[in-house]
Amino acid sequence: MHLLFNCVKQHNMRKRFVTIWFPHLKTDWFSKQQPALQKIPFVLTVADHGRMIVAEANSIAQSKGITSGITVADARVIEPLLQVLDDKPALALKLLASMAKWCIRYTPVTAVDAPDGLVLDVSGCAHLWGGEQTYLKDIITRLTNAGYTVRAAMAGTVGTAWALARFSNNASIIENGNEAFALQQLPPAALRLDDLLVQHLHKLGLNTIGSFTAMQRSALRRRFGQELLKKLDQTLGFEDEVIIPVQPPEPYQEWLPCFDPVGTATGIEIALKQLLEKLHHRLAKEGKGVRAASLTCYRIDGKTTQISIGTNRPSNSTVHLFKLFELKIPGIEPGLGIELFILEASKTEDVAALQETLWHGTSDLEDPEIAELLDRIEGKLGRNVVQRYLPAEHYWPERSFKIADSLSEKPDTIWRSGKQRPVHLLPQPELVQVTAPIPDYPPMHFRYRNKLHKITKADGPERIERAWWLDGGQHRDYYCVEDEDGHRYWLFRLGHYGADTPHAWFIHGFFA
């Protein structure tokens, strides 16, 4: 099994692009869904002002002279046995978006080129497949095997690759700097110009790109407008062309394509260790640590599987991060094999350099070993099984604390230690039946969950007023009570006793 490190783009790396053209995108899809259509002429139709118009024809129908834009009646005259199907206008974009995501196995930057193509920024990626020839051949072969008619080309600009894929029958790969020569004999339409402008050029006898590229730019601008010069500059590489990827690459993302599909846990572990090493070097240089990361596995059958981890403190320790992922590797289903691994750090934070001493280390929450222990516990038992609480500026018991976002979060206030508080506070107070002398004596016994507790000791009351600016309601009078078994509870009476107001008692917590 050969595992390859991912390609890392550099600013001085030469740009390379691949464009893929699907000349029969929708009809190929229909033929895949209904294999009987593969051997007969058929068209996709749409309604237009009461007439049925051919939106797209398959290759067999096109060979008989049926083209897009003619009426179905005229098409039937040409081919009486023509099969007619309803078009799906939104189908093309859905197919292209799906294929663009599938092509992420070749490069992280893939974009839809509506209405029938894709654009791939493959700078620095082809060597992972043994060179540009094998790289491009692999893309074409796999899409062809999937049932689609495909033409593709590679060049130093999007425009040149686009032109070669659609208009050239000779070269499919052009070296950087040879764009002008490769475009000489191609028609003006290869520059992705407006149809009216293309017709204008042909009327003037400018039937190839080479027939006007030597003209003065000022003359071209006066006669044909700025659009011609813009497209020409983009195609020749004098002006950058922005493509919008279907999945923007994450800032901390590492790739690992595989020559041979990986189908074992050992192979996945080897790939993961290599990716973590690469990610570690990047994070360490920038003083960053991982808070959340995921490993996405692209299978050869087109499906993906993913595992994710999280940490309590930012970490760039490859050993620790590997242990967290290792717990979840059994959940990966490799199927027939995994051909691409992508490790992505979706959440990172700055790593604070802790002062180290020779004779002793930290023993509080700043100790990285404590954070790593909590990460392993949560990796086995699930996220949020371990929580840290901080004091909050409220007297009302339910609001007197908050869950900390991380181990490093500092409290805004101090814990109130003047009064006893239960170790276990119920999320919501629960109603209990209490017998107590009135008006302000502690209870004598109470019934909780069908068990009667006889109270032997009691302390209170402690009155806690409700925060009237947040919500309305009655105050609470709390008692710390102990039953005959030595168990201690936190009970409260809601409001005052009154002739017209039935008193209610609640249990709110348990002491150690």
Would you mind describing this structure in some detail?
By secondary structure, the chain is α+β, with helices and mostly antiparallel strands. Among the domains are: 17-23 and 92-236, Alpha-Beta Plaits (2-Layer Sandwich), CATH 3.30.70; 253-350, 2-Layer Sandwich (Dna Ligase, domain 1); 424-510, no CATH class. 26% of the residues lie in helices and 28% in strands. It contains 13 helices and 19 strands. The protein has helices at 25-33, 59-63, 72-78, 91-102, 132-145, 158-167, 179-183, 195-203, 217-224, 226-236, 265-286, 318-326, 368-381, and strands at 17-21, 42-48, 51-57, 83-86, 109-113, 117-121, 151-155, 253-262, 288-299, 304-315, 338-350, 389-391, 401-403, 424-435, 445-448, 451-464, 476-483, 488-494, 504-510. The strands form 5 sheets. Strands 14-15-16-17-18-19 form a 6-stranded antiparallel beta barrel. The protein has a 4-stranded antiparallel sheet with strand order 5-6-1-7, with helices on both faces. Strands 8-11-9-10 form a 4-stranded antiparallel sheet, with helices on one face. Strand 17 and strand 18 (488-494) form a beta hairpin. Helix 6 packs across helix 10 (226-236), helix 9 (217-224) packs across helix 10 and helix 11 (265-286) packs antiparallel against helix 12.
CATH architectural designation of the domain at 17-23 and 92-236: 2-Layer Sandwich
Query: For the terminal residues, how far apart are their CA atoms?
Result: 58 Å
Nearest-integer average pLDDT: 84
CATH domain fold name of the domain at 17-23 and 92-236: Alpha-Beta Plaits
Name of the CATH class of the domain at 17-23 and 92-236: Alpha Beta
* Share of residues in strands: 25-35%
Discrete helix count: 13
The main pleated sheet reads as: 6 strands, antiparallel, barrel
Q: Compute the number of strand runs.
A: 19
Poorly predicted regions: 1-13, 354-363
Helix share of residues?
Answer: 25-40%
Tell me the overall shape: elongated
Biggest sheet strand order reads 14-15-16-17-18-19
